[in-house]
Amino acid sequence: MSYIPANHPSQPEPTIAPYPPASSLPPDNYDTSLNLPSAGNSRSTKTIKTESKTDTREETSTREETDLDLPPVILGGGQFGYGIYDDDQGVLSDMPVRVIRMALRSGMNAFDTSPHYHPSEIIIGNALKCLESEFPRSSYKIITKAGKYGPTPRDHVYTPETIMDSVQRSLKRLHTDYLDVVYLHDVEFIATDPYPSPAGHHLPALDPSTSEAKTFHLDTTTYSPLGRGDEIILGALGALRTLQSAGKIRKVGIAGYPLPLLLRLSLMILHTTGIPLDIVQSYAHQTVQNAALGEGYLEAFTEKAKVNQVVNAAPLSMGILTTRGGPDWHPVIASKSPLEAVCKQAVELCQQRETSIEVVGTDFGFRVLRQQDLKRVPVVIGCKNLQEMERTLKSWWAVNNSDGHVKEIGEVEKQVMALFDQRGVRNWSWQSPMNA
């Protein structure tokens, strides 16, 4: 290979010093009443409130031993990558290990990372090693990815050899002999068609009679590979499943942005291999701006493609649903999308109502979403300091009461959703990849 991406497993491993003993870390005091509910086995009756009805169902969360039992909130590792959400000094300070310790103590005992979020895997691995006397490997879940080693299309390498090498490097970095989940990262960069996945309103693609379904090849009942890109994905998945059979990985899946493409690939994998994906993760699709996951795709993944677990990331849409706005690399900002201006209007609307877009956005994003089998859809969110950790825990409890009741959609949430709807960007998704 003439071009080797910056974070490819064949690149030299950087030297990052381990953390000092956990006993030397400053104490972190927080309100332990904010601890998340256990992800362990239980059986209870929950009353699930929605805007239109109250749904009382018996929740049976007793799992087979092979199920993941993920917590309601997963700590995202993008915050521990150079230049993603924090500067290098912050990434290399003791703050990441203190954030991870607080996450573990509060019940946020799963971590989502990737080689692309360099050096996130190393930082998280060093932190977990530092904390191992208090938190053994059995007390948390590690989720990582393979195949994406930089931001451009040519930085995505899905050869079986690279996937195998990537997982082996992740095991070493994370100081473990198994990984709970490994995704193929940003499959839309490899998939055959549509490429790139176009911007637009993607809920209509769930109806086979629509032009949107035709665009995303969801207008069929047979789901075969459409070309070389799809075949490459199947080969990479085969490598993950080989490692799964060897006990190196518990669950395998795909991660990316465009919901209709993720659904097509999930169906293709089911129809081609006869085995459904264990897990699928999308991001920025269960937000106050775009709730296409909960409004249709979640059921399609679990009932049609037989995906066992769906995960939702980025409830604040990677920063564009914040007062400060997203980073310069955000697809909406980089493409000068009209959505950026509407998000700024939403910020002003929330301020006029004496709240913030962060509060409104997390209220919406943390409201419990469940699959048909009543498994909770976990939310991945990053926190780069202890204040953000505490704010995240408070936000989760603000809408999910200990008695099982879920807070109804608030008046300001409705006004913000109406704004996005009036401007034509409610449930609108951006193009991905942007630089295809």
From TrEMBL:
Domain NADP-dependent oxidoreductase: residue ranges: 74-412
Pro residues bias (residue ranges): 11-24
Pfam families assigned to the protein according to its UniProt record, in alphabetical order: Aldo_ket_red
Biased composition, class Polar residues, residue ranges: 30-47
Basic and acidic residues biased stretches: 48-65
Listed GO biological process terms: dehydro-D-arabinono-1,4-lactone biosynthetic process
Gene Ontology terms: cellular component: cytosol
Region (Disordered): 1-72
Matching Gene3D superfamilies: NADP-dependent oxidoreductase domain
Top-rank taxon: Eukaryota
Bilayer-crossing regions: none
Protein name per its UniProtKB record: Aldo/keto reductase family-domain-containing protein
Lineage: Eukaryota, Fungi, Dikarya, Basidiomycota, Agaricomycotina
